[in-house]
């Protein structure tokens, strides 16, 4: 009987020992996997804030004209759905949105004050990219182009990401498929341009600007809508009074950058032009010489006016004939065919 009791006690102890051991092993195993626990805690996707602008951006706007300048880098950047979110656009002094085939648009960014560590996706040029870029004495950056563009590349110093022996200035990222994955950065583009014999310095472009104490006076307008033919490219800007900037939406959704910031502009210009299809691919000819209607937005106000291009230089004027003065900060210019509806 004593033997049975002793064995029973031993069996009970063994059972409890096994249970405790398993529990202890499980606990220790969990401690050895802290990254798995952290991943589980943050796994639910958190919605990005609708106003990701910091106080720092407003401070930069105030000192914008005092920032040092370099020769303009002008880069053609894709706006296809597969190209979003893009990189580097909020660091551009100036961004053009230009119509291309199929009722879609493509960006062209001008960099001189900031040096983005990532720019792209870089895409092909059209001939009117070159016509506009020549006003900025730039290093022109692109990845190929239309036949009409190739006929004009000799008119401008350019770095072609697809040919020309400058592939060391570009790279493709694995997270995206070609042609939406070609990128570079400002420092690399400038370094390769110098190696290729480009001038380091160029002419400095700027708009006319108001002083920090002057107001942009017009009529109240807090929303801009540009109904490009393709609905995924419909552009909207909403004015945010807290940051004094316009927040960009495209295709009905917030237009994010790869950094999690929303695309924003201090000033917005709409430049109305005539456009016509010139080939079976749907490529366009834009009338960029002469004059046409323009609308200027800043600080939640709108002013009507005109654009005028003479002797190779585009100027923007109020209806009274005085050159328009903008607020310090980056500007977006939407070049819009006259048959596209614009509301504000």
Describe the protein in words:
- There is one protein chain.
- This protein is of the alpha+beta class and 344 residues long.
- The protein has two domains: 65-195, YerB-like (YerB-like fold), CATH 3.50.90; 208-343, YerB-like fold, CATH 3.50.90.10.
- The chain contains six helices and 23 strands.
- It has helices spanning 2-31, 34-42, 55-62, 127-133, 147-150, 186-195; strands spanning 73-77, 94-99, 105-111, 139-142, 158-160, 171-172, 182-183, 208-209, 219-220, 223-227, 235-240, 245-250, 253-254, 264-265, 267-273, 275-277, 284-286, 290-298, 301-310, 313-318, 325-326, 331-337, 341-343.
- The strands form five sheets. Strands 1, 2, 3, 4, 5, 9, 15, 18, 19, 20 and 22 form an eleven-stranded mixed β-sheet that branches. Strands 10, 11, 12, 13, 14 and 23 form a six-stranded antiparallel β-sheet that branches.
- The longest helix has 30 residues, at 2-31.
- It starts with a helix and ends with a strand.
């Amino acid at each position: 009987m004593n033997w049975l009791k002793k064995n029973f006690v031993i069996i009970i102890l063994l059972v409890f020992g096994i249970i405790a051991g398993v529990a202890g092993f499980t606990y220790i195993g969990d401690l050895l996997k802290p990254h798995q626990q952290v991943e589980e805690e943050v796994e639910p996707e958190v919605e990005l804030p609708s106003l990701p602008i910091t106080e720092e951006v407003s401070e930069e706007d105030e000192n914008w004209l005092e920032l040092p300048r370099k020769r303009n880098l002008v880069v053609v950047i894709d706006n296809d759905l597969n190209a979003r979110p893009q990189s580097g656009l909020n660091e551009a002094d100036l961004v053009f949105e230009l119509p291309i085939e199929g009722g879609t648009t493509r960006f062209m960014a001008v960099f001189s004050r900031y040096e983005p560590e990532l720019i792209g996706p870089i895409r092909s040029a059209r001939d009117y990219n070159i016509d506009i870029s020549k006003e900025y004495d730039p290093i022109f950056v692109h990845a190929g182009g239309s036949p009409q563009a190739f006929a004009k590349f000799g008119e401008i110093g350019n770095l072609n990401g697809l040919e020309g022996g400058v592939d060391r200035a570009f790279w493709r990222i694995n997270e995206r498929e070609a042609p939406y994955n070609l990128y570079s950065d400002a420092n690399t583009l400038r370094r390769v341009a110098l190696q290729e014999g480009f001038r380091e310095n160029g002419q400095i472009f700027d708009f006319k600007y108001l002083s920090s104490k002057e107001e942009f006076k017009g009529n109240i307008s807090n929303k801009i809508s540009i109904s490009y033919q393709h609905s995924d490219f419909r552009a909207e800007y909403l004015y945010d009074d807290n940051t004094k900037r316009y927040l960009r939406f495209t295709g009905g959704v917030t237009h994010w950058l790869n950094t999690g910031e929303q695309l924003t502009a201090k000033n917005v210009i709409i430049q109305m032009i005539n456009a016509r299809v010139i080939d079976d691919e749907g490529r366009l000819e834009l009338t960029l010489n002469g004059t046409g209607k323009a609308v200027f937005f800043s600080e939640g106000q709108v002013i009507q006016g005109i654009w005028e291009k003479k002797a190779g230089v585009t100027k923007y004027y109020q209806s009274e004939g005085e050159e328009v003065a903008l607020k310090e900060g980056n500007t977006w210019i939407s070049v819009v065919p006259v048959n596209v509806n614009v509301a504000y």
